[in-house]
Amino acid sequence: MIYALLAIAAAFCAYIQWGDEIPLPNFDDANQKEAKYIHKVNKKAEKEKFERTKLNRHPSGFMTVEEYEQLSAPKDRMTVEVDVPKVPTPADMIYVPQPEYRIAKYNNPPGVAEISLTKTFYEKRQQNAQGIVSPDFTKLVYPSVYYYPDSASTACDLFVINLEEAKSNLHKILTANVIHRVSEPILSTDKNIDNYFTFRTLTPVDFSADGTKLLVKEKIGNTKDGIWKTTPVVYDFTNNVSYSLVEVRDAIAYYWDENQGLDLEDKRWDIYPLGFAADNPDWVVVNAYAYTGDTPVNLGTWTVNYKGEQSRLITFKTDTVNISMNGYKLVKEGVVSPAITEKEEEQLKRIEKANNKKKKEEDKAYVKDLEASYKAKIKEMDKEFKEQQADYKLRKRIQGSTSGDEILIKYNEIKEQQAQKEQERLEKLKQKELKRLEKEQLKQQNQQNNT
């Protein structure tokens, strides 16, 4: 260490004595230091970009705010694809019965459709009931029932799901999902929860023959007291309007008061919507009955225009009225044969195994290409930086030895010489590669001749 210090001191003294004959160490100036720093930062940013892209092959919580906002942006619910739901198979079971479905008439026999609430309804506080499909299989309408525990009351909305095209009718219904429903309900009950134990439900009865109208029955009652009133409602899809057919109730009460002197307002009575008339799709058929504590008393079968106009008494015999049945629903027809299910499971396992293998190979190739692209980018950046530094040193050296226009002239001359040398180097490499290819071809010809 002492000898090194003495040598530096001697060199410094010589520099004082002889001026600039002994050169100073070649330290980089500020521009070169800044360029090196920027190059280092750019390489680091490129490395972070590569690692982030590699990590994001499988989405995780490690992401920037911009990436999170992009992934969490709202998507169009109507474009989301839904698979046919399947019964999950437990690991300890070989065969689980898979239900088979078929399409059946919804309103058969007329007027029997009712909302059936499950045991979990009061726990989950919502249930989507049986839906009805239009005659042309373009839309499905279903009621969504809500439970309010504060007042033990219920309310209901009626939603529409537009079915997908280019599928079989059965597949359309199986893949119908609430995620594709129209956001606003076409019909809704009163959601006032002031009255305790009241229930309000909307039950689809049937579509008209052309599918442009839907008959719905709105039931209002009390879980402690039974049904209070049923009102037919017709929704017109062409004009997007609904008609409450309350006039038919008034016509029934008026008829019995005028002809029989029976005031139905003092009695427990209600109506039973059956569907659209078979001979006239613009008319709705309802059956009226009165409670007697034992067997209900028939108050006649009535028709009313879908707008609630011109209520008429048809007959007191319900079996003589022709009701159309237009809507459809899914019903379970049984279960798939165990042999078929097992074969399908084996086939699905093979397909899944092949798909997983293909995904792994594609992922491996993707990572390899990603890494090669990253290394090529770094190599290109290093080459570009090296050329910039060499060019900067060249300019600095020329400026120290010349002045004026001679700087540009000398710079261009040197760059031309460098370009010529680079061209000669590339030409030598080309000739060398051609000779190697010729030798390789000659070797292959000799092997072929020998064989």
Describe the structure in your own words.
By secondary structure, the chain is of the alpha+beta class. It is 40% helix and 24% strand. It has eight helices and 15 strands. Strands 2, 3, 4, 5 and 6 form a five-stranded antiparallel β-sheet that branches. It is elongated, with a radius of gyration of 43 Å.
How would you summarize what this structure contains?
By secondary structure, the protein is an alpha+beta fold.
Question: In the residues, how many domains can be counted?
Answer: 3
Distance separating the two termini:
72 Å
Total helix count?
A: 8
Low-pLDDT stretches: 1-27
- Helix/strand order: HHHEHEEEEHEEEEEHEEEEEHH
Defining traits:
single chain, 451 residues, alpha+beta, 3 domains, four-stranded antiparallel sheet, 24% strand, disordered N terminus
What is this structure's SSE topology?
Elements: H1 2-18, H2 30-55, H3 65-71, E1 99-105, H4 121-124, E2 126-128, E3 132-133, E4 139-148, E5 153-162, H5 169-174, E6 187-188, E7 198-207, E8 213-222, E9 226-236, E10 241-244, H6 247-259, E11 269-276, E12 283-290, E13 297-305, E14 312-315, E15 328-335, H7 338-401, H8 406-450
Antiparallel strand pairs: 1-15, 2-4, 3-4, 4-5, 5-6, 7-8, 8-9, 9-10, 11-12, 12-13, 13-14
Helix pairs in contact: 2-7
